[in-house]
Specification:
DNA binding, single chain, Lambda_DNA-bd_dom_sf, Tscrpt_reg_BetR_N, 434 Repressor (Amino-terminal Domain), Transcription regulator BetR N-terminal domain-containing protein
C-alpha cells in the first residue's frame, strides 16, 4: 500500500517562519547567513527545510530579528505528524 504525505515537515515550517521574520525585520538572507557564519547557499538550504536549523542557529536568528524563539519554531499539527 502506498501513502502520499502531503503535509509539510517541521524543517520546512521552521524555515518558512525564519524567512518571514527576516523579511519583517528587514534582514537579508546574506546578512543572516553572515551572522550565522555560513554561506548563503547553506542558509537557503535551511530556509527550504532541506537541512534543519539547530537551536544555536535559531537563537542567533532570534537575536538579529528580535523575534520570540517560540514564533520561530511554531509549527502546525500536520507537520508534527509527518
Amino acid at each position: 500500500m502506498y501513502f502520499m504525505n502531503t503535509g509539510r515537515s517541521i524543517s520546512v515550517e521552521v524555515g518558512m517562519n525564519v524567512r518571514a521574520e527576516l523579511a519583517r525585520s528587514g534582514q537579508t538572507i546574506a546578512a543572516a547567513a553572515t551572522a550565522l557564519n555560513m554561506s548563503a547557499p547553506a542558509f537557503r538550504r535551511r530556509l527550504k527545510g532541506q537541512v534543519p536549523f539547530n537551536v544555536a542557529e535559531l537563537k542567533e536568528i532570534q537575536r538579529i530579528t528580535g523575534t520570540p524563539f517560540s514564533d520561530l519554531v511554531k509549527v502546525t499539527e500536520k507537520a508534527i505528524a509527518v
